[in-house]
Structure prediction request, 69 residues.
Amino acid sequence: MEAIPWRDRLRQEDELLEQLASQTEAALRRRAEALKAGAAELGSVYAVANEIGLSWTAVARAIKKHTTS
Prediction:
């Protein structure tokens, strides 16, 4: 069994990293949309943060950074 050349392995890993980065960004957008919906439902970012155990600044920052509106 012949080993895969290092250049090919490197290329494969770079492709995987690109895919993971894309999936991470999509997950961050969906998470921010969920946080935004929670704020609308509960009435404030503070209420969402309190319910999920995060600081209100972390919730607000996620919403601002990963949503368009």
Observations:
- The mean pLDDT is 96.
- Helices lie at 6-42, 45-52, 56-66.
- DSSP finds three helices and no strands in the chain.
- Residues 6-42 form the longest helix (37 residues).
